[in-house]
Every structure is written in C-alpha cells, then in structure tokens.
Design goal:
It is a single chain. This protein folds into two domains: about 10-135 and about 190-275, no CATH class; about 140-185, Nuclear Transport Factor 2, Chain: A, CATH 3.10.450.750. It is about 35% helix and about 20% strand. It contains ten helices and eleven strands. An eight-stranded mixed beta sheet has the order 3-2-4-5-9-10-1-11, with helices on both faces. The longest helix is centred in the C-terminal third of the chain and has 24 residues, at about 250-275. The relative contact order is 0.18. The mean pLDDT is about 95. The structure holds flavin-adenine dinucleotide (FAD) and iron/sulfur cluster. Iron/sulfur cluster (SF4) binds next to helix 5.
Length: about 280
C-alpha cells in the first residue's frame, strides 16, 4: 500500500480559533497534543520550538497547551526532535512522552523501539508519535536563499512558509510570494532524494495538507492508540471532520504523490548503487 497501513483516512480541522490562527494546516498536531495532555495520555510533547534565529527550530518539551501552541506551524528545516526525546526522558523525568516527527524521524523512533539497545528507558516512555507528511526538507541557509536571493525578502520578515501548487511560498506583511519548486530542488538535503516515505507510514497518526481543502488536513489513523485519541478529540468537539471521499482534491492526489516519491527515490537509489555509493537497504 502506497500510504502504508491505516484504519481510516479523514479530512479534519481544529474547531478552536486560537489553534487555527497559528497552525500550518488544520491544526491537527497541536489539537491532538493538547487533548493528549489534558487526558493525561502524555505529560509532555517534543515539538519544534523557536530559537534565537527566526525559522531555525529548536526541539523543546512542551508541557502545557500554551507551549504546544507557541511551537505550532511548519519550519521547513531540520528539527532534531528525536535527540530531544532522550533529553526529555533523562533530564526532565517525563514518564509519558509524545512527539511530532517527519517520516524519517518516525522510522528512526520505531527502530529505536524495536531494538532498544541502551535506549529502553526512552522508548518505553514514548506514548504518541504524530507523523507529518514530508516531500523534502532544506538546510536553513537554503531558506535564507529562497527568501533573500529568489524572493527579494528576508527570513526576518517572513510570517509563514508553505509548499503548495508547485511553489515554495513565503508570507510577509507585504503579501505572499512564491518560487517554483523546480528552482528549489537543488537546495534540498541530499538525503531527501533517497527517502521513500511521504506519509510517515509508521506513526500512530499521520497528517498533512495534501488531499484536503485549504485550512483542513488529511489525516491517516494508523494504530489503535492513534485511532482512539483522534476519535475522543472529535467526540469532545475539539476537531471537526469530513469524509475524505467528499473533499477535493482527496486521497487520490495523496496516493499519486506518495507513489511519485517512492519511484523517484528508488531511481536515485539505483543511480547511487551503480556508482558504488552506500544506500539504505529498503527492498
Ligand atoms: C520539512 C517539512 C516538509 C513538509 N512537506 C509536506 C508536504 O509535502 N505535504 C504535506 O501535506 N505536508 C507537508 N508537511 C507537513 C505540513 O507542513 C504540516 O506540518 C502538517 O500538515 C501539520 O499541520 P497542522 O496544522 O496539523 O500542525 P500544527 O498544529 O501547525 O503543528 C505543527 C507541528 O509540527 C512541528 N514542526 C514544525 N516544523 C517541524 C519540523 N521541521 N520537524 C518536526 N516537527 C516540526 C511543530 O512544532 C508543531 O508541533 C511538511 C512538514 C515539514 C516539517
Ligand atoms: S524527505 Fe524524507 S529524509 Fe527528507 S526530511 Fe522528509 S522524511 Fe526526512
């Protein structure tokens, strides 16, 4: 299955204005973490917080709804959230942890849980893994180049970044400008070119914008824990849903992009093999 194993696919968004105002898409990640905190399913969540450098994320352990909301929105560069999980478990003494992670990070987490060599004290504490869809990621210097050299603006002035409709967008007080993705491909992290997972296939719940209308999210409920958390947030009125079959562009687009990513990565893996380079063993 090109989207991995899931129980249900749904279009959804937060019903809360304070989350809608700051979230990247439907605010599903922030809503679910806040609900999980309130239900005591987790005591804290590792999220991509803000650092001294605008748009360069710093993983933080959010212990309150306010801290979850402060870290909402997408930073299109690496946030080493997996590293912070260790710190949260070891130094902050958090017993029940959640985290948000890109597909590659989710894979790392599941490997750590499957083979917990010297990490059992960490992996046992992870109760909720929310995966976000991810086609590519950029070093912070690349984001600077898009804003400055390509869009005649700056990261300092940027209020929001987004990828959609074939462009990388930055939103400032002066308006929204986009650079075509064919001009940004060369700036991606090299590892992203051999990444086969678009939809965080091993998360409890995966979510992203693709497949859902603007302001909404596509959500894939994968595990029993993920399914019951999401449904209890819906029952509490924190999240509203629509059948994915009734929204445009729908699951077909998500499947098409997920398959495209796998095919392109496999081609690049074969290229690298033919050059004698080391590649991940994905087959
Ligand atoms: C590099 C990257 C590429 C992406 N590409 C796509 C794509 O191609 N298609 C698609 O549909 N969606 C993509 N997404 C996901 C999308 O941008 C949203 O993050 C997702 O829809 C969740 O939105 P939300 O409104 O539910 O989350 P919100 O409620 O806004 O919360 C977002 C959460 O993600 C965390 N976060 C922010 N940046 C990062 C990061 N770099 N690494 C880990 N956690 C982070 C925040 O701290 C916050 O907890 C991408 C995300 C990233 C980080
Ligand atoms: S494209 Fe793959 S390797 Fe790159 S950040 Fe996204 S999930 Fe990780």
């Amino acid at each position: 299955m090109v989207l991995g194993t899931y129980k249900e696919a749904i279009a959804a968004r937060s019903t809360e204005k304070k989350i809608q105002d700051v979230s990247q898409d439907g605010g599903i990640v922030s809503s679910l973490f806040i609900h999980a905190l309130e239900e005591k399913i987790i005591e804290g969540a590792v999220v991509a917080g803000n650092s001294d450098e605008k748009w360069k994320p710093e993983p933080v352990v959010a212990m309150t709804p306010e801290e979850i909301i402060e870290a909402a929105g997408t930073k299109y560069t690496m946030s080493p959230n997996v590293f912070a999980i260790k710190e949260a478990a070891r130094q902050c003494g958090v017993e029940k942890l959640g985290t948000v992670a890109t597909p590659c990070q989710v894979l790392g987490i599941r490997k750590m849980q499957t083979y917990p060599f010297s990490t059992r004290f960490i992996s046992d504490k992870l109760k909720l893994v929310l995966g976000i869809f991810c086609m590519e990621n950029f070093p912070i210097a690349s984001l600077d180049t898009f804003a400055d050299a390509k869009l005649d603006s700056s990261l300092g002035k940027t209020n929001k970044m987004d990828i959609g409709k074939g462009k990388f967008w930055i939103e400032t007080d002066d308006g929204t400008k986009g650079v075509p993705l064919k001009e940004t491909h060369g700036y991606e992290q090299a590892g992203c070119n051999i990444c086969t997972d678009y939809v965080a296939e091993y998360a409890d719940i995966s979510t992203g914008s693709v497949g859902a209308p603007d302001g909404w999210s596509a959500v894939l409920l994968r595990t029993d824990d993920g399914d019951s958390l999401f449904k209890s947030a819906v029952d509490e009125g924190l999240i509203e849903t629509k059948p994915i079959t009734e929204v445009k562009p729908g699951l077909e687009l998500l499947e098409k992009l997920a398959k495209g990513k796998k095919d392109k990565a496999k081609e690049e893996i074969n290229n690298r093999v033919s050059l004698g380079l080391a590649v991940p063993n994905i087959y």
